[in-house]
Phenylalanine-4-hydroxylase (Pseudoalteromonas amylolytica), 265 residues
Amino acid sequence: MAKSSKYTSKQPDANGIIAWSDEENKIWSELVARQLKCIEGKACDEYMEGLKKINLPHDRIPQLHELNEVLGKETGWQVAPVPALIDFDEFFRLLANKQFPVATFIRSREEFDYLQEPDIFHEIFGHCAMLTNPDFAEFTHKYGQLGYAAQKKDRVYLARLYWFTVEFGLMQTEKGLRIYGGGVLSSPGETQYVYTDTPEISPLNVLDVLRTPYRIDIMQPVYYTINSIHDLFDISQMDIMSLVEEAKELGLFEPKFPPKEKLAS
């Protein structure tokens, strides 16, 4: 994640409070109102229960200590303020210590519909509700520990596991397809898109996931489903690094998307 960001994270004051402007609070308010409508009947029950627990304010960006009180009580997690972009080493270190990185900036109005890098709306609205769930929280913690200990070449494989679960995970339930991945839950376009006939949706097999290429700047051509959130706990107990070795031997699947267009020189 060595790219630079045009955004700058805000620094908390001595009491851990971040001073958000009226416009930033307004953007948050509009994003929350829009996305709550989008996820109706689409988000998984565990997410909706978590949303009630964290009790997000709709009129302003929440302070991190408000989230920490709830997360600490429910699963022992905390959110940690970070710069707009952090490297893999820091990302895994935080998760290994049950700290979820939150970039303390919010998107500009020009990028209201979509921005490539995660802002505070994506991190909090997309992920924090799920972190109140013990199975999801344990999976994320174990993932951080594995990633922190892993070599650089193995982290690329682990990144795919995170991408197709924590970010873009779907669940088959008795009520039909439901979303638990924060990348979908915080995106109006993707929330609708997963219910079209366009993407390929397959049951999650960890080895398949480790071999599936992805691009961050397009709608996903492939999603993987679990049957219940407890499946994530089961995955966290697997020998994932031996599966990474197997994936390296087998090689990656053919990408289901075109390569990025190279800019003409």
